[in-house]
Amino acid sequence: MRFSLLVCTAGAVFLLGAAAVAVAQPILEGTENIDFDRPEAWAMKRSASLALFTALAPPRDRHAGAVELALEVGWNPSLSEEERRVGFNGTKVEDLNRLSVVPRPRVTVGLGRNWSLDAAYIPPVEVEGITPNVVSLALERPLWRVDNWVFGVRGYGQVGKIEGDITCTDAEAGIPPGEPGNEFGCEEPSNDETSLNYVGLGLTGGYRVPGTRDSAVHFGVFANYMDLEFQVDALTYGVRDQTTLVTDGWTYSFSTGFSWAVGRPMRMALEAFYSPLAVTRPVRDDDDGTVRFESRNDALFNLRAMISYVF
After folding, report:
1. Which helix (H) or strand (E) holds 75?
2. DSSP assignment string, 221-289
3. Residue of 302, 190, 196, 188 lying closest to 256 (CA atoms)
4. Buried b (16+ CB within 10 A) or exposed e, 20-39
5. Measured between alpha carbons, how far is residue 157 from residues 119, 200, 250 in Å?
6. What's the CA dihedral at 10, 12, 18, 23 to 10 degrees?
7. Considering the domain 27-310 in this protein, what is its CATH number?
8. How many other C-beta atoms are found inside a 10 Å radius of the C-beta of residue 153?
9. pLDDT for 258-269, tens place per residue?
């Protein structure tokens, strides 16, 4: 009898404690569809554009079973404080300057009839509090040749996510809520997740430099449909925020570069990439304090490099 009483008492204490925690930590949930030019959407489409799956080469003839292994490195340009002010519709500065370079291994396989399958994977390795897990695939084929010119088509897509303390960093959580540096009340590092999915189609081309063994200029024009999602998981001012932001829309991109042979089995390539990215940001008038919204193009321009080994 005494044992049963103790069990009941312990159970009641547990339930009361759980109820107290639930009361002390309300949860904010819901899904919000946001415009494709909102600051939060701009940050997501910029991240997706950094990983846009270009070829870094002109369309090539490959026989069935041909294999090419490569390592690509992309430069992630640093953002100003104004550009990083994307949270809560452009009022909170987020820590988006984590990585200056983004590496990813790639493999290209010839499928026959001049079709090539291109694949890349960024594995879930945590760096600077960010853990990616991103897979990219592409099909490409040369379509038309004239003299030293070649033109082709490239279809591609990506599925993947990035996890990390994006909305509430470890540094913010170390400052008392409401104090300078933690005005939004972060109580612990967040565990946010952003999904960066897209499909696209590109018209590609190249010009083989006469008198060289395998040097070429390449270029491409791309249309990309992006399906983006940001899942917040942050504790701020005692409230567990688990809001989901979703958005989708089209972006357009351009690339040009140069590739050349390094010895017999190896190639090097450099590429410049540009994608205009529309964003509407709040602007406060210094005179009367009123806020207006201003639309502009905060484009992504970055450089990419790749070294490949042809079997």
Report:
1. strand 67-75
2. EEEEEEEEEEE--EEETTEEEEEEEEEEEEEEEEEEEEEEEETTTEEEEEEEEEE--EEEEEEE-TTT-
3. 302
4. eeeeeeeeeeeeeebebbbb
5. 10, 6, 13
6. -150
7. 2.40.128.100
8. 15
9. 999 998 799 999
DSSP one-letter code for 77:
P
**22 Cβ neighbours under 8 A, 6+ residues apart:** none
Locate 199 and state its tokens: 């499909």
Q: What pLDDT, in 10s, does the model give residues 214-242?
A: 899 999 999 999 999 999 999 999 999 99
State the residue for tokens 């570069």: 257
- Judge contact between 291 and 283, C-beta under 8 A: yes
pLDDT score of 8 more than 80: no
**Per-residue pLDDT reduced to its tens digit, 204-214:** 999 999 998 88
86: which residues sit within 8 A by CB, 6+ positions away?
39, 40, 42, 43, 92, 94, 96
Long-range contacts made by residues 10-18, C-beta under 8 angstroms, separation at least 24?
none
Residue 16 above 70 pLDDT?
no
Selection from 205, 191, 303, 198 nearest residue 252 by Cα: 198
Q: What is the pLDDT of residue 228?
A: 98
* Cα gap 216→218, rounded to integer Å: 6
Q: Phi-psi region for residue 56, left (φ > 0), alpha (ψ -120 to 50) or beta?
A: left
Q: Which residues contact 74 (CB under 8 A, 6 or more apart)?
A: 50, 51, 101, 102, 103, 104, 273, 302, 303, 304
Q: Between β-strands 27-33 and 239-262, what pairing exists: parallel, antiparallel or unpaired? A: parallel
Confidence of residue 24 (pLDDT cuts 50, 70, 90): low
Which of helix, strand or coil describes residue 131? strand
* pLDDT at residue 21 is higher than 50: no
Bridge partners of 199, per DSSP, are 157, 225
Radius of gyration of the chain (CA): 25
